[in-house]
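Reopening this one. Same input as before:
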Amino acid sequence: MNNRQTRILLVDDHAVVRTGYRALLEMNPSLVVAAEAATADEAYAAYRKHVPDVVVMDIMLPGSSGIEATRRIVTFDARARILMFTMCTHPSVVQQALEAGALGVLTKDSSPDLLVEGVCSIARGKRVLSRHIAESVAFSNYVPESKLFGYLTPREFEMCRLLVSGHSLDQIAEYLNLSPKTVANKLSTARRKLGVSSDIELVKLASEVGLVPWVTERRLGLDVVTTQDADDEVRI
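Same output, byte for byte:
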């Protein structure tokens, strides 16, 4: 009989939130929180140090997002099992999280039981989506503009997200450990993929598909994006 506990890395920039997650998850005797992190850089360092079985990752983090943290972790360890736990349900953001390597996405308005079940499912290598998120992604196929950001790589998307949020090239380069020239070149490629020729047009497009409210909330000091009521989990 295997009594080994599932070791979890919690990533959220609010200590009180992490404390709540830890208490909830560790009510299940098969789960234990091995480490915590508040930023993308801390998440990457903690993963390399502890190599947990599951990462519970918030998408909205200060600086680089959970998407970038996921991309870095999966690049380091292709076997990493990451569950996004977020208030953001925009289909383009969810798609980028999955493209970066996350195995599942649950909304923070899900019931506590669904978070525990989601972690256990991810630990077994299963994919998990909140029902509302699954429906949002499915219906996005009928909104052509929303699909455009899906043409970007996770890193291109992260650069566009930071740019639209008001960060400079130097700041983006610092967050992503790249040179400003590399950032400028990659943003140029991203604009071509999106069919825009300037940063102003990029902001306008992001606004039209509903991305701007999400990317600017962190800058405004807000942490809540309105979502629908909690939905059942969908396993794939």
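So the earlier flakiness isn't reproducible anymore. For the record, The first helix runs from residue 15 to 25.
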